[in-house]
Amino acid sequence: LAALPSCAWARPAAAPALPLMLARDASAGADPAGHLVSEKYDGVRAFWDGRRLRFRSGREVAAPRWFVERLPPLPLDGEMWLGRGTFDALSAAVRRAQPLDAEWRQLRYLLFDLAHAAGPFASRAAALERLAHQLAWPPLQAVRQDVLADRAALQRRLDAVVAGGGEGLMLHRADALHVPGRSTALVKLKPLPD
Predict the structure, then answer these.
(1) Burial category of 33 from C-beta neighbours within 10 Å (exposed 0-12, middle 13-18, buried 19 and up)
(2) Whole-angstrom Cα distance, residue 74 to residue 11?
(3) CA–CA dist 194, 191 (Å, integer)
(4) What is the rounded average pLDDT of the residues 99-104?
(5) Residue 123 has what pLDDT?
(6) For 6-47, how does the pLDDT look when each residue is reduced to its tens digit (9 = 90+)?
(7) What dihedral angle (degrees, nearest 10) is formed by the CA atoms of 84, 89, 93, 95?
(8) What is the pLDDT at residue 138?
(9) Are the beta carbons of 171 and 37 closer than 8 angstroms?
């Protein structure tokens, strides 16, 4: 964990909405140049502040103790995920006041950012991969980030993800610092906008 970027996280006093980086819709003809591209997972956003797992709203997720005890003591931003086409079952599992171990043993926490860490996104993504490798715990996975050559490659990747039942793609500027709120440094590309 020593090789990870330093984090400057200040936890809010109450549980208001978290200061997360949020995506905008990609413009027509989005260009992947300068971006890292990943699948857009249809899961439930979950933020680990180093002590508590919380929804995007700031409300705490009632996760089993054995699950949160395996998470590292640094802020992580990701998505609770069960698989493509399983959003309703996932949502029910993570929103229960009393978590069911059998359900949680099927879930994965897909990490897409070292929240509030210093440095550009490319460095944070690489650090997440190292972290997931070091922890070697299958439910905790770094989201694969790819460099795509051009718009045609981006369209092929989008078509493949959607054909496989996926929702779309995320394009994150490789040089972007973590800045809370909606940003053009992070965009979502879907066949149909939200």
Answers:
(1) middle
(2) 12
(3) 10
(4) 97
(5) 96
(6) 444 444 344 556 779 999 999 888 999 999 999 999 999 999
(7) 100
(8) 96
(9) yes
Positive or negative, the CA dihedral 114, 49, 142, 154 is: negative
- For residue 128, give the H/E element and its range: helix 121-135
Which token pair is 180?
């809370």
φ, ψ of residue 149 in degrees (nearest 5): -70, -40
Q: Which residue has the tokens 């906008």?
A: 193
22, 62, 98 from 92: Cα distances, Å: 23, 12, 11
Which phi-psi region, left, alpha or beta, contains residue 49 (left: φ > 0; alpha: ψ -120 to 50)?
Answer: alpha
pTM: 0.87
CA pair distance 172, 189, nearest whole angstrom: 11
